[in-house]
Specification:
By secondary structure, the protein is of the alpha/beta class. It contains 15 helices and 17 strands.
């Protein structure tokens, strides 16, 4: 297979389909999503068999247990895919919505209309359920999508692709509105991210190495975050029960996710009382602690933290802890080491909470809440295509609105400029 020629043909089909899908009604798009539900249900046995082929090959290739876990399409995950399609169908359609319409002194009306981005390329690893999530969000937001899953999930993804094509065709929409790359050749990724004439935006979902490579080599706009170095700062005078619950949940609810806390900052005024309580709870949960000299003066069993620890996304039961003098030092630390993903303050002081919201430069900034809430579903977006830490276009969890842009619309009645 000539990869360049193949990817150009995929891009050509996607560009043509994007014009049709952008003009599709909400009813058509919802019909396609619900028809896909029926197709998936009818093909459940075949899909699970295809997934078993991928799992067998992964085991033979000594795929890491964490990757095998993400690859497995369990019955519960299959049901979750179905529920996700129902949820996206129930979401409001952003396409065509007009806002900020105002009369100008000239008499014209000026406003903004939400429009699809066009063709969205999504590159991801392991999890076949992402194929359905990404396709459904792309479809509902009026975009054509090109999906490139990991080679380890090729059989599962192709089986899902057939169901997506059935759903689109039954709703009278082009099956090429969602294309799943059929080759496992890595050169396909290189072609996909350098085709601005066919692809309008790339969304990578995977490890830091994948995202760094795509960010470096892409000629297409990339919506991404590299890592999630998230912080919880416990402020002077904070409620200790709130602080304990938030600090524990932010780290131990799940370890291998981008919105898990990686560094805990504690005001010096609270450390003597609160840190020993937290140390016990973390140790009971199997979390390794790496702390500053002040932390180790309170509990000498804490491992000494290095400069590298403040820069590290562990994605594991490891936590770095630092005692700071107060909110000034906390904000300085966060803006120095944060990956601009999610940071939270635990405080009972309203002015300091507002200052934290204003001055911490991250895509999600929270007051008295676990970092684990940084998620599209928890934010009421219904689902997300990923999380962006960039400052232009989309920032934070990217849902339907993040997969659209805006254009100015002007209404007149024979108006001419004087």
């Amino acid at each position: 297979m000539d990869i360049k020629q193949y990817m150009q043909s995929v891009g050509t089909r996607a560009r043509s389909a994007s014009r049709l899908i952008a003009a599709a009604s909400t009813r058509q798009k919802n019909d396609a999503l619900l028809a896909t539900v029926d197709a998936l249900q009818a093909s459940r046995t075949q899909l699970l068999s295809a997934n078993e082929i991928d799992l067998d090959r992964g085991r033979k290739n000594n795929l890491e247990s964490a990757l095998l876990d993400r690859l497995e399409l369990t019955g519960a995950r299959f049901d979750s895919m179905i529920e996700g399609l129902h949820q996206v169908a129930a979401l409001a359609d952003p396409v065509g919505a007009i806002s900020d319409m105002n009369y100008m002194p000239s008499g014209i009306q000026v406003g903004r209309m939400r429009v699809p981005l066009g063709v969205v390329g999504i590159i991801y690893e392991s999890r076949p359920n992402v194929t359905v999530e990404a396709a459904s969000l792309g479809l509902k937001s009026g975009n054509a999508t090109i999906l490139r899953g990991g080679s380890e999930a090729i059989e599962s993804n192709q089986a899902i692709a057939r169901c997506l094509a059935v759903g689109l065709e039954q709703a009278g929409l082009p099956a090429t509105a969602v294309q799943v790359i059929e080759t496992t050749d890595r050169a396909a990724v290189g072609e996909m991210i350098t085709m601005p004439e066919y692809v309008d935006v790339i969304v990578p979902r995977g490890g830091k190495g994948l995202i760094e490579r795509i960010s470096r080599d892409a000629k297409v706009t990339v919506i991404k975050h590299l890592d999630g170095i998230c912080h919880v700062y416990i402020d002077q005078g904070a409620n200790h029960d709130k602080a304990f619950d938030i600090a524990l949940n932010s780290k131990t609810h799940r370890y291998g996710v981008c919105n898990a806390m990686e560094t805990l900052l504690i005001a010096a005024s609270e450390a003597e009382v609160l840190l020993p309580r937290l140390v016990t709870a973390y140790r009971d949960s199997g979390v390794e602690l790496r702390g500053c000299d002040q932390c180790r003066a309170i509990d000498s069993t804490i491992t000494a933290a290095t400069e590298e620890d403040w820069h590290t996304e562990y994605l594991a039961p490891i936590l770095s802890v630092r005692i700071v003098s107060g909110i000034d030092a906390a904000i300085e630390h966060i803006n120095t080491y944060s990956s601009q993903h999610t940071d939270t303050i635990v405080t009972e002081d309203y002015p300091r909470s507002m200052r934290f919201l204003r001055e911490v430069d991250s895509s999600s900034v929270m007051v008295n809440a676990s970092t684990r809430f940084a998620d599209g579903f928890e934010y009421g977006l219904g689902a997300e295509i990923g999380i962006s830490t960039d400052k232009i276009h989309a920032r934070g969890p990217v849902g339907l609105e993040g997969l659209t842009s805006q254009k100015f619309v002007v209404l007149g009645d024979g108006h001419i400029r004087q």
